[in-house]
Amino acid sequence: MTKKLFLKTLATASFLMAMSLPALAAEGGSGGGTYKIALGALAVGIAAVGCGLGDGNAIAAACEGTARNPGAGQRIFTTMLIGMVLIETLVLFTFLAAYLGF
């Protein structure tokens, strides 16, 4: 790492640490409570959209693979099903985090 890059990194880190001190000294308030439900719904919605796109791509690839090689259909289906389960756990974890955090 060059000296110039090191000095820039050090200056940036120092600036960020100095700017975070007032946030740590701030008094606790009730701010941000009005948007908790909306933010939770937004988080679950974004996760559901991403998982829907992932599921669609997985199913399309599995159908294409089965069409190219019908003999491997059962193995492709099993692999696709495991992949879809892993994709759907993202929605469940996001829902759980939104439920517990908000």
Compact overview of the structure:
This protein is an all-alpha fold.
Structure description:
- This protein is mostly helical and 102 residues long.
- It has helices spanning 3-25, 36-68, 73-101.
- Helix 2 (36-68) packs antiparallel against helix 3 (73-101).
- It starts with a helix and ends with a helix.
- The model has no long low-confidence stretch (mean pLDDT 81).
- Belongs to the ATPase C chain family.
Oligomer: single chain
Q: Estimate the mean pLDDT confidence.
A: 81
Number of DSSP-assigned strands: 0
Note the run of SSEs as H and E.
HHH
Number of helices: 3
Spatial gap, N to C terminus: 43 Å
Annotated CATH architecture of the domain at 42-101: Up-down Bundle
CATH-assigned fold name of the domain at 42-101: F1FO ATP Synthase
Overall SS class: mainly alpha
CATH class of the domain at 42-101 reads Mainly Alpha
Instruction: Give the CATH superfamily of the domain at 42-101.
Output: F1F0 ATP synthase subunit C
The helicity comes to over 70%
The 3D shape can be described as flat
The major sheet is characterized as: none
